[in-house]
Every structure is written in C-alpha cells, then in structure tokens.
Amino acid sequence: MARQSFLFTSESVSEGHPDKVCDRISDEVVDAFYRESLSAGLDPWAIRAACETMATTQRVIIAGEYSNTPKSVTVAMIQDVARKAIRDIGYEQDGFHWANANIEVLLHGQSADIAAGVDAKQPTNQEEGAGDQGIMFGYACRETPELMPAPIYYSHKILEDLAHARKAKNGDAAKLGPDSKSQVTVRYEGGKPVGVTQIVVSHQHIVEDLSSKQVRDIVEPYVRSALPDGWISKDTVWHINPTGKFFVGGPDGDCGLTGRKIIVDTYGGAAPHGGGAFSGKDPTKVDRSAAYAARYLAKNVVASGLADRCTIQLSYAIGVAKPLSIYVDTHGTGKVDEAVIEAVLGNVMDLTPRGIRKTLDLNKPIYARTSAYGHFGRKPDADGGFSWEKTDLADAIKKAV
User: Fold this and answer.
1) How far apart are CA 100 and CA 79, in angstroms?
2) Half-sphere exposure (CA, 13 Å, Cβ side) for 42?
3) Mean pLDDT per 10-residue section of the chain, whose length is 401 residues
C-alpha cells in the first residue's frame, strides 16, 4: 500500500542555469533545421539532427550530427541563433555576453550506419525505425491542474514567474540575473499534497551588494503567489541565497552541458526516468518523442478517469519500429486492470516513431520553448507546441477498455 503521509522534494532550474542555456541553444538549432526546411519546401520528415552544446566563460561549443538539412543553415546562421538565445535569456555579463562570446560550431553529417538503421526502405527495415534503443517513461497524477506532481510543478512555476518579472523589469525584480534554482518540499497527508515545509531559492543578482535578506524581499512575493493558498505556514522554513551572495552566475560561474537536467525536465523524481535527455534531438530519437508519447498516454489515462495516477513505460530497439513492450502501473488507483490498459494503448495510438511524429505533429520548430521549466505540465500551444499535453485521447481510451 502506498504511503499516505510523507515529505517529497523536487527542484527546478531557470533558463539561465548553465545547463539550461545549453539545452536552449541545442533546441534552437533543431528548430532552425525545421524552420528552414519548411521555408525551402523540403520534406520535414527527412530532417535528422542531434546537437550538443557546452558553455563556459565567454565560450560556446556546438557539436553534433545532421542530415537532409537545408543549405541555408550555415555556421554563421547557427552562431546567430545561439547569440539570440543567449540575449533572450538575459546574459550581458563580462564573463558571458551574447554579443562577444566565442561561439564554435562543430556540427557534421550523420553516420550512414545510423541512418541505415533508422530510415525506411533500407534492406533491414521497411518502415522508419527507432533512432536508438532505450526505455522511456510517462507519468500523470491528479495533484495539479496539469496532472503533474506538485513539487516539480510549483518549483517550475516559482522560477518561471520570477523570469517573467525580471525580463519585464518589474520593480526590484530587475536587480535579478538569469541564473537561479528552486526547491520545494511538499507535505502529503492522506496521499494528497497539503502544504510546503521547506522552500529554497538561490537567485543570481546583477546588483553586486544585495544581501540574502534583500533577495528574499524581492523573490518572496512571487513564491507566495506561485503556491496554493494556505500551503505556506508560519512553520515553513525559507532558504533564500543561503550562501549569502550569488553575483557571478551562468556559464561564467559553472560550465554547462546539454542534457544534464533530465529529472528537472520530467517529473522531479516522482516517476522513473529512462536516462535519455531530450534537448537537441529531432523526434526520430525516441529518447524524446517516445517520452512525449508516454506522457501523452499517461495524462489521457488519468484524464479519462481510469486512474488517479499512471506510469507508462515504452521500450525500443534501434532500427525497429514498434515498441518492444508497453507497461502500465496505476499505483493501486486504477478502475480497470493494468493489463487491459496495456492492451488498449497500442491500438488507440500508433507508437512507432513515425506514428508518434504524426499523431503529435512533431515535425515543427517547437522545441526551444521546451528547454526550460519542464517538458511536461505545460499548456498546449496553438501552433502545435506541447501537443503531448492535450487530453483529446481520453474518450477513446475509456471507450476501448
């Protein structure tokens, strides 16, 4: 039987965190390939891109592979895309500045061996295969309006609200820098989140001599507005810039790499993770697309009323189209047997890489927006972004069981 009373903690990091700067640049490169391909009238289904970024003091290195990409995507264009991303995040520091950072682009063509395993109509496969082997997890629960675990949902919301205020230069929020981290410890009673026992916010400031108390005076109103009414009590413990000073931040303070915040990107540790990162990968890479599909299915299972919590695992082999296995766990909250749901999911959605891309409409420049504040628990966009957050499959799943 699941525990009913406990504490659980999740963290988030802002778009200005060194690793998230790298995630953003990598996803901007993927978006550039799709955007330019669509503009040139090329087939977006053929795009292949895998982009890794490293950032440190006044230096960005972009490496990876691509194929079938438009000629308009040049080294100069990728450098420009990276600079615009860094500027949008807000870096204009001596140690990391969008205008004069040294940006090196080391992208090269994709391995023909990998392409042969993935592309359709090869000697070994008659349809598009998975870009790699691996396991992917999706999760949903009734703890928040977006069917996300409360600790990660509110950790993200705190930082996103602060980022909006910083960029809008709302009062003293203009004194804050791009780099920040949050952590929320949620108290559960009867299996439901009811309050917060600990709050951590470490936020960079661009006014050097700000004290921890002054930073708390700036961030506390945003923390309180982000959390549900009544969750903060007189016993809640606050840790705001606990080291006392956070002036040097971002890649100048700590080297960043693409793909190092996979728990922040997903469910904050409340659900399993298959280990693969998302950012910088086109949707033939099932690390990304199948994780989106698993979230889509789990969210729709919960939205259908068949369970209050749902974990879904999908597994794939490189070059093989269909998933090797589908696993469902409703954590004792299911209205029907998990095996019944497992049997249904592969029928209500085509879980091949091509099927996932078609159902979720993933061949679009929609990825840079996913690079901070979580890939899940977001509102679906009118242009197809966050399509995996829709609950339009709930009725079909409910009828099928």
Assistant:
1) 11
2) 21
3) 90 98 98 93 90 98 90 94 98 96 91 60 65 93 98 98 96 96 98 97 95 96 98 98 93 97 98 96 95 98 98 94 96 96 96 96 97 98 97 97 93
H helical segments located in 198-285: 212-226, 262-265
Q: What strands lie across the sheet with 59-67, from one edge to the other?
A: 102-109, 59-67, 48-56, 256-257
Model pTM?
A: 0.95
Q: In what order do the strands lie in the sheet with 6-13?
A: 6-13, 176-189, 192-205, 237-240
Helix or strand run (H / E) with residue 25: helix 18-39
Give φ, ψ of 312 to 5 degrees. Answer: -125, 135
Q: Phi/psi at 88 (nearest 5 deg)?
A: -65, -35
Among 393, 373, 210, which residue's Cα sits nearest to residue 306? 393
- Smallest CA-to-CA distance from 290 within 114, 138, 117 is with 138
Q: How crowded is residue 126: how many other Cβ atoms within 10 Å of its Cβ?
A: 10
Between strands 237-240 and 192-205, the pairing is parallel
Surface-to-core class of residue 53, CB atoms within 10 Å of its CB (0-12 exposed, 13-18 middle, 19+ buried): buried
Report the DSSP beta bridge partners of residue 240.
201
135 closest CA partner among 12, 9, 300, 271: 271
Q: Where are the beta strands (DSSP E) in 48-129?
A: 48-56, 59-67, 92-93, 96-97, 102-109
Written as six digits, the tokens of 233 are 């009590």
